[in-house]
Design brief:
15 helices; glycoprotein; five-stranded antiparallel β-sheet; alpha+beta; Agglutinin, subunit A; Hepatocyte Growth Factor; six-stranded mixed β-sheet; 46 strands; disulfide bond; Ser/Thr_kinase_AS; Receptor-like serine/threonine-protein kinase
């Protein structure tokens, strides 16, 4: 066949390929009269390369965000959104009307958002570009509107912000409404990070700035991966964040004003594949937001009565002892007292009911109302105890500052020095005060009654006999009821009926977990905190009665943010049930050993939380408690991933003057200290050993004993961790964990702490107070010795 004969065929083939190419390009566009619908499979349009997409992302059960996002990576990170303040319900549409108007409407046709522009009526089509820019274009393909000119909290390589411009942080990681922080390129060219007078957009104060007033013109994220501030004459005034470059050819990049107020430059390796890649923090501003924000009006970097910690990359907000978050899902709302504040009644003796919780290197600037110098710490404490307005004192080098409510600008950092002394009620002081008030009320009633009836000796005698008969009959009819009333009054616990719990759990149908003597069910009681509860139903076999008594007596009088709260119990006939607060995220084991490991920051917070919970049990309770069974299955997580110790069924109580005990072996294989097997006295150091094993598991995100590993030297984690430390190859412990590798210094410190905790000689192990101080960086961690046998 000659060329002349082939020519028509080739021409037809080329025309077909060209038509397919045009079709492929046009199908990625939104053309006149077309739309995308929230909740449908075809609810987005990808860019030509597939790296970005525009469309609907589901945020809530019936809440959709119109957004652009990284489409070729597993996280599909959102970079721009239209309706963060007003999520669209399922069935909503984003449409380009036949008259060229681009808008988002709900299922009833009511407008939620539109691309406001004087030129949008001329729009011919909308398209998603490979740069991450979503644009509306006219008939001649000129840009009439673009997302790059209407940024939310993110900028991308190739994006330019001309003055005046701003980024607004989102409210929470998954709440895209306006948050509390802004990045502003002002009219005079200064680049500022600002806190706002939330919920308004008015700027409160700048906590970081470039000091480029009069010269700055544009903020540019160039294709070399550099973020710079440029003058109107084209010269570069100042590099923002780091001036070290990562090529956009090899890395996806974004710069975000995160919800916590930190401006972060993130990178993501393009050659990592969609399953194992992750965003890494490359550089940040400011270098320490906790120290940078000092507001005369406002709460500071965290909420009122809380304090801010910064680990070099991430900010965390925490409540001091005796306080808890008003809303754990939104820590910026601050912390509330968990105790009754001190009375200002001069006849009250409440001074004796208060003590101080000490936090080194802590401060709350701008909350002080009195100042003293050349004084001692004890004098400073006594001044606060005698002052009902005093909530805390800061003591530093002979200087004393009294602090009032609400405490603001809280920060914890080694550079601060000194200490914060927070005034809190002693254990059970609230209950004692309430009991005293009730006793006083009863005494008054008795006096009044006796006075009224004193005129009739015979009537008093009849009343006394009748009272005794009623009490006798009540005692015989409900012997366990007295026990329940006694437990309720002494421990401030609620006594539930079996029928109440049966109905609340729908007949004990939804199982959460089970142990040797018990099964835990999910339930709902409308008048309990949060409504949801976890009901532990004990199987009445030998040993379960002791477990019930141990658990109630161990945890009934405790209250700490890192302990699961016991709300009440049922002790009715042969039924023994314990009622706890419901922990939405389940066990640490489930969170830790799943495919998607927790972040390094989450791991740090979890280990510190567990350590603080154990410290409370060991040293801060009125009755010291050895838990005896610390393991991932007995650590529960709430909806903000706060770790809480649970399952006190094996707990051992220590009297005030007792430091050791003897008991049968308790605990779980792999977490049990050597002294259990050697007939040695049992101390609180058995919990320290178990914590050391748990700490290494959390760091490495793997179980202590794993027969599935290929290298038999790695089967027992504590042995392998020590070998890696001894041979200076800690990188092997986290060889597939990029985030841990970027925190190797802290990771090494935590491994050393874990090895100290698992020393076979209990006296060589640190106390939990020392563990907390080491974990938080307030105590140096020396190199641990060789792991040797425990000898007498």
């Amino acid at each position: 066949m000659g060329f002349v004969q082939l020519y028509p065929i080739l021409l037809s083939l080329l025309f077909a390929l060209f038509s397919l190419s045009v079709l492929a390009q046009t199908t990625s566009n939104i053309t006149l009269g077309t739309s995308l619908t929230a909740g449908e499979d075809d609810s987005f349009r990808a860019s030509p390369s597939g790296e970005f997409a525009f469309g609907f992302k589901q945020i809530e059960e019936d809440g959709f965000l119109l957004a652009t996002w990284f489409h070729s990576i597993s996280e599909e990170t959102i970079v721009w959104s239209a309706n963060g303040q007003n999520l669209a319900p399922k069935g909503s549409k984003v449409e380009l009307t036949s008259n060229g108007w681009f808008q988002l409407v709900d299922p009833n046709g009511k407008q939620i958002w539109n691309a406001s522009s004087s030129r949008t009526g001329l729009v011919a089509y909308a398209t998603m570009l490979d740069s991450g820019n979503f644009v509306l274009r006219g008939q001649n393909s000129q840009n009439l509107w673009q997302s790059f000119e209407q940024p939310t909290d993110t900028i991308l390589p190739g994006q330019v912000l001309n003055q005046p411009a701003r980024l607004v942080a989102r409210y929470l990681p998954t709440n895209y409404s306006r948050g509390r922080f802004q990045l502003n390129l002002t009219d005079d060219g200064n680049l500022e990070l600002c806190k706002t007078f939330f919920p308004t957009d008015l700027v409160n104060s700048a906590y970081w700035e470039t000091n480029t007033s009069g010269t700055g013109f544009s903020l540019i994220f160039n294709l070399s991966g550099s973020i710079i501030l440029r003058a109107d004459n084209g010269t570069i005034i100042s590099p923002i964040l780091s001036n070290i470059l990562y090529s956009t050819k090899n890395f996806y990049q974004r710069a975000v004003l995160d919800y916590d107020g930190v401006f972060r430059h993130y990178i993501y390796p393009k050659n990592s594949g969609s399953s194992i890649g992750s965003w890494s923090t490359f550089s940040i501003a400011p270098p320490n937001i906790c120290l940078n924000i000092r507001e005369e009006m406002g709460s500071g970097a965290c909420g009122f009565n809380s304090y801010c910690k910064f680990n070099g990359t991430n900010k965390s907000c925490q409540c001091p002892n005796g306080y808890s978050f008003i809303d754990p899902s939104d820590v910026m709302k601050g912390c509330k007292r968990d105790f009754v504040s001190q009375s200002c009644d001069q006849t009250s003796r409440e001074t004796e009911l208060f003590d101080f919780h000490e936090i080194p290197n802590m401060d709350w600037p701008f909350s002080d109302y009195e100042y003293f110098h050349l004084v001692f710490e004890d004098w400073c404490k006594q001044e606060c105890l005698a002052d009902c307005f005093c909530s805390a004192v800061i003591f530093r080098d002979g200087e004393c500052w009294k602090k009032r409510q609400p405490l603001s600008n809280g920060r914890l950092d080694p550079s601060l020095g000194g200490k914060a002394l927070i005034k809190i009620r002693k254990d059970n002081a609230t209950l004692i005060l309430e009991d005293c008030n009730r006793d006083n009320d009863r005494s008054k009633l008795i006096i009044i009654g006796s006075t009224l009836l004193s005129g009739s000796v015979f009537f008093n005698l009849v009343l006394l006999v009748a009272t005794c008969l009623v009490a006798y009959r009540c005692g015989r009819s409900n012997p366990k009821g007295d026990q329940a009333v006694q437990l309720t009054s002494t421990m401030n616990l609620r006594s539930f009926t079996y029928e109440e719990l049966r109905k609340g759990t729908k007949g004990f149908t939804e199982e959460l977990g089970r142990g040797a003597f018990s099964v835990v069910y999910k339930g709902f009681i409308s008048d309990t905190p949060g409504n949801l509860i976890a009901v532990k139903k004990l199987n009445m076999v030998k040993g379960s009665e002791k477990e019930f008594e141990a658990e109630v007596s161990a945890i009934g009088r405790t209250h700490h943010r890192n302990l699961v709260q016991l709300l009440g119990f049922c002790n009715e006939g042969e039924d023994r049930l314990l009622v706890y607060e419901f922990m939405s995220r389940g066990t640490l084991a489930k969170f830790l050993f799943k495919d998607q490991r927790p972040t390094w920051h989450q791991r740090v917070d979890i280990t510190i939380g567990i350590a603080k919970g154990l410290l409370y049990l060991h040293e801060e309770c009125s009755t010291q408690i050895i838990h005896c069974d610390i393991k991932p299955q007995n650590i529960l997580l709430d909806d903000s991933n706060t770790a809480k110790i649970s399952d006190f069924g094996l707990a051992k109580l220590l009297k005030i003057d007792q430091t050791v005990t003897t008991t049968a072996i308790r605990g779980t294989k792999g977490y049990v200290a050597a002294e259990w097997f050697k007939n040695k006295p049992i101390t609180m150091k058995v919990d320290v050993y178990s914590f050391g094993v748990l700490l290494l598991e959390v760091i490495c995100c793997r179980k202590n004993f794993d027969v599935n590993v290929e290298d038999e030297d790695r089967i027992v984690l504590i042995d392998w961790a020590y070998d890696c430390f001894h041979h200076r190859r800690l990188d092997l412990l986290v060889e597939d964990d990029e985030e841990a590798q970027t925190n190797m210094k802290q990771m090494e410190e935590y491994v050393k702490i874990g090895i100290w905790c698992i020393q076979e000689d209990p006296s060589a192990r640190p106390t939990m107070k020392q563990v907390v101080q080491m974990l938080e960086g307030f105590m140096d961690v020396s190199n641990p010795p060789y792991l040797s046998s425990f000898t007498s």
